[in-house]
Amino acid sequence: MSAELMNLGHLLRMARETITNPREGAATILGLHLSVPALRIAFGLVVVLSMLLGELAVLISPPPPEGMLNVSPVVMGLLQAAFMFVIAHAITLIGRWFGGTGRFEGALSLIIWMQFIFLCIQVVQLVAMVIIPPVAGLITILAMGLFFWLLVNFIAALHSFTSLGMIFVATILSAFGIIFGLSLILTLLGLGFGTV
Questions:
Q1: 34: left (phi over 0), alpha (psi -120 to 50) or beta
Q2: How far apart (Å, rounded) are the C-alpha atoms in residues 96 and 94?
Q3: Any residues with CB less than 8 A from the CB of 153 and at least 6 apart, and which?
Q4: 5/57 Cα distance (integer angstroms)
Q5: Closest C-alpha to 98, from 151, 149, 156
Q6: I want to staple 159 with a disulfide (CB 3.0 to 4.6 A). Which of 11, 28, 102, 122 is the partner?
Q7: Helices 8-20 and 22-31 sit at what angle, rounded to 10 degrees?
């Protein structure tokens, strides 16, 4: 892994540039051709950081209403890791069904990079929760839109697609399928929304 990728300031600049120009940001990440060991380290790092920020969010947030599902940050982090892995496989396979040539390693590197960007956004959201709580909710809404915007552009860069509209439709349909499948798995594990 290059020294630049170990520099937080450089990573933050890359994250900002990726948000403003997702295709170019994705091309930069894909151009790094990260090795499998480097991807494993990066994957583990973003998952652990996600768990830590999740724990911090629990400490800052008010207690959830009675009867609401309360999953520990560790469990959420593990579920998030599984979700990242599934999404990386999904955008690889679905892209190939539409004639794309992207590889799983490239997809995983983009998903890891996206997770880093959202970790940065989560830090901003945590600060907002303390200083201006209503803004934190607005950040959540904007982040949802940003997720799909980045994902569609990342898929286009991975598979060299040009039609963002087609990718968006395929992404939405695939997302519903993945969410439905994961919800079934969570229910079988006893973590469904009806659990208290």
A1: beta
A2: 5
A3: 22, 23, 26, 164
A4: 27
A5: 156
A6: 102
A7: 140
The model's pTM is 0.83
- Kindly tell me the burial class for residue 115, based on how many C-beta atoms sit within 10 Å of its own C-beta (0-12, 13-18, 19 or more): buried
**Tokens coding 55:** 């724990």
Please give, one letter per residue, the 3-state secondary structure of the chain.
CCHHHHCHHHHHHHHHHHHHCHHHHHHHHHHCCCCHHHHHHHHHHHHHHHHHHHHHHHHHCCCCCCCCCCCCHHHHHHHHHHHHHHHHHHHHHHHHHCCCCCCHHHHHHHHHHHHHHHHHHHHHHHHHHHHCHHHHHHHHHHHHHHHHHHHHHHHHHHHCCCCHHHHHHHHHHHHHHHHHHHHHHHHHCCCCCCCC
Contact 43, 108 (CB under 8 A): yes
Letter for the amino acid at 88? Answer: A
Tens digits of per-residue pLDDT, 46-81? 999 988 888 888 788 766 665 555 667 677 778 888
